[in-house]
Amino acid sequence: KLGNATAKAELGRASWKLLHTMTLRFPEEPTQDERDALNNYFHLFSRLYPCGECAAEFQQLLKKYPPQTSTRRAAATWLCFVHNQVNERLKKPEFDCANLDATYDCGCGDEPLNSTT
Ligand code: FAD
């Protein structure tokens, strides 16, 4: 049956926003448990994402490019790269990953922004 492209795009934007903000708040020096949590999160996300076609594609991407969880920077850069792979498939412009920090402010106020070195 026909999907609803507007709703699908809105779900995508909301999801990417959450995912990017999450990696940019991931610990700078994660414990093994935190690393496992992020890795599991992405794999479970790729199984449960409500758009079936998107979920299947994302699972393939995770196989090809396993989540990088060694540091905050590694995780954020990995997700930016993977999102760019999706952009490419959907013929959307490539995002410059140097702009990550300026784009995603979680508004949480409990930790200085840009502590990403
Ligand atoms: P989006 O791609 O939603 O991006 C939102 C904003 O994030 C952009 O405006 C930009 O500011 C920023 N951004 C863009 N690229 C990056 C990047 N690389 N890193 C950081 N920030 C960035 N839709 C389909 O039709 N088919 C699919 O198979 C499909 N698969 C998807 C898989 C996943 C896991 C997700 C989360 C979404 C998927 N979508 C899919 C939805 C699609 O990716 C878009 O979210 C949707 O089309 C809306 O696009 P948009 O142009 O508003 O920008």
Fill in the CATH topology: Four Helix Bundle (Hemerythrin (Met), subunit A)
Structural class: mainly alpha
Distance between the termini: 47 Å
The total of beta strands comes to 0
**What is the element string, with H for helices and E for strands?**
HHHHH
Bound molecules: flavin-adenine dinucleotide
Give the number of helices: 5
**What's the Cα radius of gyration?**
14 Å
The CATH fourth-level homologous superfamily: ERV/ALR sulfhydryl oxidase domain
Estimate the helix proportion, in percent.
55-70%
CATH class category name: Mainly Alpha
Could you say how many structural domains there are in total? Answer: 1
- Beta-strand percent range: under 5%
Shape type: globular
Largest sheet: none
pLDDT < 50 stretches:
none
Mean pLDDT: 93
- If classified by CATH, what would the architecture be? Up-down Bundle
